[in-house]
Amino acid sequence: MEIKEISTKSKIKEFVNFQFDLYKNNKLWVPPIKADEQKALSKNNPAYDFCDAKFFLAYDDGKIVGRIGAIINHDYNKKVNKKFGRFNRIEFINDYKVSELLINTVKDWFKKEGIEYIHGPLGFTNLDTQGLLIEGFEHLPSVASVYHLPYYKDHFDKLGFEKENDWIEFRLTVGEAVQLKASRGASLIKKRYGFDVVKFENKSEIQKYGKKVFEILNDAFEELPYVTQFNDKMIDLYSEKYFKVLNPKYIRLVKKDDELIGFIVGVPSLSEAMQKAKGKLYPFGFTHILKAMKAPKVIDMFLTGVKHEYRSSGVAVILFSELQEEMLNHGINTIETTGIFETNHNVISNWKNYEHIQHKRRRCYVMELSK
Question: What is the pTM of this model?
Answer without folding.
Answer: 0.94
